[in-house]
Specification:
The protein is of the alpha+beta class and 127 residues long. It has one domain (2-121). It contains 3 helices and 8 strands.
């Protein structure tokens, strides 16, 4: 089964699911993730230092769909579009990705290059 890592900030207090409201995650490499659509994914955090420690699987989720999106600008001017160039409201996107503040969401993606991204949906919701 495919595993996907998550920052511990996105794991609920019980340690057995994502935090309430996190209905998707955003990753680079749309073409890679598209082939896992409809499959089960093990969600994990690292027990210690990332890439140098064991995985701690905290739940399994079905990847309902993978939606193509584009990061057009980053930082405080973060702007996202769907694959057909419709704008995605940043506050809605950040909230559905588990961020309480849009500034935290923008900071998270500040290190990413603008371009094609994948929104990995764990529900039927789409933009």
């Amino acid at each position: 089964m495919k595993r996907i890592s998550f920052n511990p900030r996105f794991v609920n207090e019980a340690g057995n699911d994502l935090i309430p409201g996190k209905i998707h995650t955003i990753r680079e490499n749309y073409d890679y993730w598209k082939k896992f659509e409809g499959r089960e994914l093990d969600l994990f955090t690292w027990e210690g230092k990332p890439y140098r420690s064991k995985h701690k699987v905290f739940c399994t989720k079905r990847l309902v769909s993978v939606q193509e999106a584009e990061l057009c600008e980053k930082g405080s001017k973060s702007r996202w579009l769907t694959h057909d160039k419709r704008p995605i409201h940043g506050l809605v996107l950040s909230s559905n990705d588990g961020f309480f503040l849009f500034s935290d969401f923008s900071d998270w993606f500040d290190g990413y290059k603008p371009g094609k991204m994948a929104i990995l949906h764990f529900t039927d919701f789409r933009y």
